[in-house]
Amino acid sequence: MKKVFPFVLGTVSVAVASGGEGGLLVWKIINTIFLVILLAWIIKKWGIQFFENRRKSIASMVEEAQKAQADSRRALEEAQAKLEDAKMKFEESLKIAEETAKKEREVALKEAREMAERIKSQAKETIMVEIKRGENELRKYAVQKAIEISEKIVKEKINPEVEKEIILKTLKSIS
């Protein structure tokens, strides 16, 4: 600013000394130079700081956005890793569940077969017991009927003469 002031003063002096129409042009030049100097001073005083603060703000926002992007990528990678882990655990759980179900089904089938065998065995035993009981009852009935028939036959065929003959035969066989 101190360097510009002597230049402006010299220009004003020349413009005043020349007078006439050239003086108007000189004043226009002086006004333009003064305006440029004033703008340069304002920009230097406030503009540079404003643009520097703005640049820092934008740089800070870009840096924050990059950090946020990096955090988002990390979070995405972690989420994908957790998803893969969850998928593997799900598949393992599914395999274990299938194996357990298969084993349970085999155990249930084995128990059902064993129970069926026991039931068959008990049924066979019950049938055998019933058959023996029926055979015994049939024998008793047959013996009883045989005795009844024998008694009937004996009563019909034995008369006093036959009795005497049987007694005599029995005595002869004893002697």
Structure in a nutshell:
The protein is mainly α and 175 residues long. 96% of the residues lie in helices and 0% in strands. The chain has one domain (4-142).
What keywords describe this structure?
175 residues, single chain, mainly alpha, rod-shaped
Structural class from helices and strands? mainly alpha
Number of DSSP E strands: 0
Uncertain segments are none
Count of discrete structural domains: 1
Tally the helices: what do you get? 3
What is the 3D shape?
A: rod-shaped
In whole angstroms, the N-to-C terminal distance is 181 Å
Proportion in β-strands? under 5%
Overall pLDDT confidence = 85
Structural overview:
With 175 residues, the protein is an all-alpha fold. The protein has one domain (4-142). 96% of the residues lie in helices and 0% in strands. It is built from three helices and no strands. The protein has helices spanning 4-18, 20-157, 160-174. The longest helix is centred in the middle third of the chain and has 138 residues, at 20-157. The chain is rod-shaped, with a radius of gyration of 67 Å. It starts with a helix and ends with a helix.
